[in-house]
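Lecture notes, part 5. Sequence design as translation. It can be helpful to think of inverse folding as translation between two languages: the language of shapes and the language of residues. The source text, in structure tokens, appears below.
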């Protein structure tokens, strides 16, 4: 801003001088020449300062407009920006195939819990959310891919990035399967299985705060007990999400589960992994 006001002052001053030099054009030749040289130099400096001031001003305006227009800034710099659509939360929310993802019965019936847990698998793309990215994406890839060896066979090697939404879903699904677990059962488990579950709670806490869906929930008439169901949210289009993750999948896990050695999330006593 200082450069701006200085340049316009100089412009005004120079303009006056310029008029002076034209009006005194009847003087001596030498005097006239040096005077007009000084005048044109001043005019040049004035124009340059004006131009520079204009550049500073343009930069300022651009920065202000980026700050005030969230669409101009990248919505999600560290992963793909996917289309959004309105979704009404509730038991029939269009977030996945038409299956049951919860049932109070599962808390006292392990068979029902396994059934529900299997339904959650249908929410994952075939690579379970592990995707391959290149160096020339339209988003920033902050870290090298995660390397995994001896996954299915001795000597195999896979690498990829897992999309956070699938890590979050995975964590929530294993927390769900632990809901029927007693303290006596927990006492039988090795500490790394407990650590992974506490990691999941903390991971989801931070993820919820990071995503911060600011939808203002009100009375929808859908459920008298609580807000939530019947409320429209602006959600990432789940089909577009699945499509992206399928296109980039580093493997196809449709027919197989990740082994325990890779992922210590085996549901206690069920032979189910994720
Ligand atoms: C537990 O759930 C399974 C599967 O839904 C069901 O077939 C079974 O009858 C349930 N067991 C009890 C004791 O309710
Ligand atoms: C993964 O494999 C299954 C069959 O095992 C197939 O139906 C499915 O289309 C495959 N998924 C992708 C994304 O290729």
């Amino acid at each position: 801003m200082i450069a701006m006001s200085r340049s316009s002052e100089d412009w005004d001053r120079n303009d006056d001088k310029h008029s002076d030099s034209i009006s005194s054009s009847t003087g001596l030749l030498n005097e006239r020449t040096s005077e007009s040289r000084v005048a044109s130099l001043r005019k040049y400096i004035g124009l340059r300062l004006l131009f520079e001031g204009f550049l500073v001003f343009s930069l300022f305006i651009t920065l202000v407009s980026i700050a005030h227009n969230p669409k101009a800034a990248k919505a999600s710099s560290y992963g793909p920006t996917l289309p959004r659509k309105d979704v009404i939360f509730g038991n029939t929310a269009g977030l996945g195939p038409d299956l049951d993802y919860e049932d109070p019965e599962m808390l006292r019936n392990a068979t029902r819990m396994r059934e529900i847990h299997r339904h959650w698998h249908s929410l994952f793309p075939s690579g379970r959310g592990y995707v391959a990215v290149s160096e020339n994406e339209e988003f920033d890839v902050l870290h090298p891919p995660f390397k995994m060896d001896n996954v299915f066979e001795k000597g195999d090697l896979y690498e990829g990035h897992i999309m956070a939404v699938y890590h979050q879903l995975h964590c929530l699904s294993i927390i769900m399967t632990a809901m029927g677990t007693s303290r006596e059962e927990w006492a039988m488990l090795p500490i790394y299985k407990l650590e992974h579950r506490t990691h999941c709670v903390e991971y989801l806490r931070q993820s919820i705060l990071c995503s911060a869906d600011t939808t203002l929930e009100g009375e929808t008439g859908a459920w008298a007990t609580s807000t939530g169901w019947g409320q429209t949210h602006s959600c990432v289009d789940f089909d577009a999400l699945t499509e992206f993750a399928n296109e980039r999948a580093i493997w196809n896990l449709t027919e197989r589960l990740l082994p325990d050695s890779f992922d210590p999330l085996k549901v206690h006593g069920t032979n189910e992994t994720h």
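The translated text above is only one of many valid answers, since several sequences can fold into similar shapes. DSSP finds seven helices and five strands in the chain.
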